Amino acid sequence: MQVYAFVGKTGTGKSYRAQKVASKYGIKYIIDDAILIKENKVVAGKSAKTEASKIASVKAAIFLNENRKNAMINAIKKENPDKILILGTSDEMVEKIVENLKLGKICKTIYIEDVATEREIKEARTSRVKDGKHVVPVPTFEIKKQFSGYFLDSLKIFDMFKKQESGEYEATSTEKTIIRPTYSYLGNYSIADNVINTIVSFVVSRVDGVTKVLRVNTHKYSYGMKLEIDIEIKYGKNIQNISSEVRNVAIYAIDYATGINLYGIDINIKSIQR
């Protein structure tokens, strides 16, 4: 297996450009912030950006934790890539990752200055310091469960010059995810249950056929949240249609307003208004 390293200081745009660098060298696998990525899919690992502090995040990213380390080693053995790209903030960091994961020697190191201009690096750094934004080089649906409750946004990158196997150039696009971890420069935040309940009650009460929202109950877990919604409906309305609409508006509202991973909704029809 050939091991490549992609090095750049924190916030200089490594994750943003990781897929492009990998494509240039024919690499399908990337390790970034303790996640193993194959092309646009998360194969193994949990992002170091989900840790509660920056120190814990660094420790996770270099696989000091035995469970993380062993799980990643096993995942790499299973995938058996011919090439892999390791992202890090310094030569020492990527060497430590390679050492801990027993990947052998680094055959080539690419630096952020090799693929980005001084202006682009400065803009990326400003975005990190000012807004606390981090980029994960996978689509939002691939990473959302790991970042339940974090601020996320998708970022589509259009590449008009990607060469296909036929030799022709085709317009293609890749998707990345922008997040703001809780330990970022803007500080910690939390979303109270009563805020979630109020959001859900408001949108559900506007569904045609719902006369009253009786109760909203939230059950929070490390990987997301489950909702219980008790409602009163108007006599003569189709219960299945109302339930489906309630579910849809609740899912959209929670996703849009909070970014929390919603993995279940129980809707209970408690009464009917004549």
SS field, number of helical segments: 9
Q: By helix and strand content, what is the structural category?
A: alpha/beta
Instruction: Give me the Rg, rounded.
Output: 22 Å
Helix content: 25-40%
SSE ordering: EHEEEHHEHEHHEHEEHEEHE
Q: State the shape.
A: elongated
Regions with little confidence, pLDDT below 50 for 5+ residues: 151-163, 169-178
Structure description:
This protein is of the alpha/beta class. It folds into two domains: 179 residues, no CATH class; 81 residues, Alpha-Beta Plaits (2-Layer Sandwich), CATH 3.30.70. The protein has nine helices and twelve strands. The strands form three sheets. A six-stranded mixed beta sheet has the order 4-3-2-5-1-6, sandwiched between helices. It has a three-stranded antiparallel beta sheet with strand order 7-9-8, with no helix packed on it. Strands 10-11-12 form a three-stranded mixed beta sheet, covered by helices on one side. A hairpin with a 2-residue loop joins β10 and β11. α8 crosses α9.
Summarize the structure.
The chain has 274 residues and is α/β, with parallel strands linked by helices. It is 35% helix and 34% strand.
